[in-house]
Amino acid sequence: MSKTTxxxxxxxxxxxxxxxxxxxLIQNRQQIQKFGSLGYPGxxxxxxxxxxxxxxPLPGIMFTTAMGAVFNPFWVAIAAGLGAGLGEFxxxxxxxxxxxxxxxxxxxxxxxxxxxxx
Length: 118
Prior knowledge:
This protein has helices at residues 3-27, 29-33, 40-52, 60-70, 73-98, 106-117.
């Protein structure tokens, strides 16, 4: 198997896993909200899950704001920030690995030029 074929398979696998995770999280958003009873680890998990969805964001900021009124706001911010940062990493992985799947076309080059310009 060539290196580019292997890279494309890995990229497609990451994309499929992230899409699957997004679907599962959207289907179970009510159960995810129950993590708030776990305290700071629950806040971390809710922030992680709400940031891990790539295409349809879950409203984690409302949960975090509400928990700031119940728990120490400083530690809520730390737990939510760490969770959100790790959750957003899934979006980075999709973007990074997905560029192998995107075919270099004239249209792609034109849009990339606009992005670099502005």
